[in-house]
Amino acid sequence: MPPSTTKSAGPSGDATSASALPAQTFVQRMSKLILSVQFLWFVGHLVTVIQALTYALFARYGAGGPWNYAKAYYGTLLSYGIIMYKAHGIPQISVAYLHRILADENSWYFALALNWAVSKPLLVTLLPYTVFSLFHSLNYLRSEVVPALLPPAQHPTITPRVQDAILRLVKSYQNPALRLVAFAEVWFLFPTITFGVLLGWTSFMAPLLYARFLSFRYMTSPLTKAAFSELRTRSDLLMAHPQVPPAVKKIYDAARQQVTKMGEAMQPQAQAQ
Q: Which of 72, 126, 192, 250 lies 20 to 30 A from 135 at CA?
């Protein structure tokens, strides 16, 4: 999951919550909350969650479905764009800036989101972004929105209970959800995107971009590495079955060797970054 996920205070990196501020009026608290880049980052994630769920549950087959799908990614581009700006500043035409961008996991998610935003709707691509945005939103809601709406000094019982409830929810479901995303990215999304080229769902560039993204994730994410490892183990067992034609086994062995070579070639780059 993108590094920003672990920072509940959002792109500013400031973990100070509204509960630590001096006593303020409701208007002052809400103005301080809303008139910040941090809140805009939160809005982007919230838009992604709402529009993705709207598309998946209600609008997928309707005339407005593609618009809901695109808006989900517009929210993603907003939130990830803010993260990238806070981390790298104004985009520059330089080799050093390019290296920094390519070494940032958020940049790859941003690039993929941009690709999906201008492509035909493909529901499965929304899964990682929706999960990430959901937990980003919950963390920000707990640390910033709840104290602004219900200052602990005025609501010493209610506010901690609400915050604790959100925290328990995040702790209970975040790790399983991230594991689900990692396995979905490897087991389901990549095959779907690849076959999507043949079926006209995606462009020829989509599998290439996604393969590069997965190679980066493999080097930086233990969950993605575990997903690849389990996929290889299960595939080896499947190909070892005597009923599998020799020609299929040969193709599988060649493909596995090629993927292994690509992974080995990526290791020096990842270490250099």
A: 192
Q: What share of the chain is helix, strand, coil (3-state, %, to 5)?
A: 80, 0, 20
Say how far apart CA 139 and CA 2 lie, in whole Å. Answer: 14
Residue found under tokens 């043949």 = 198
pLDDT of residue 25: 92
Q: Residue 200 corresponds to which tokens in the numbers above?
A: 């006209």
Q: Give the integer Cα–Cα distance in Å for 221 and 67.
A: 32
Is residue 13 within 8 A of residue 38, CB to CB? The reply is: no
What's the domain count of the chain? 1
Query: Which segments in the chain show pLDDT lower than 50?
Result: 3-9, 13, 15-19, 21, 268, 270, 273
Q: Distance between CA atoms of 67 and 3, rounded to whole angstroms?
A: 29
Alpha helical stretches, state H, 184-245: 190-199, 205-220, 222-239
Full domain range(s) for residue 230: 3-272
CB-CB contact of 141 with 83 (8 Å): no
- In order of 165, 166, 183, the CA distances from 171 in angstroms are 10, 9, 20
Q: What is the predicted pLDDT for the residue at 87?
A: 94
pLDDT tens digit string along 157-210?
999 999 999 999 999 999 999 999 999 999 999 889 988 888 888 888 899 899
Compute the distance between CA of residue 71 and CA of residue 117 in angstroms, rounded to an integer.
8
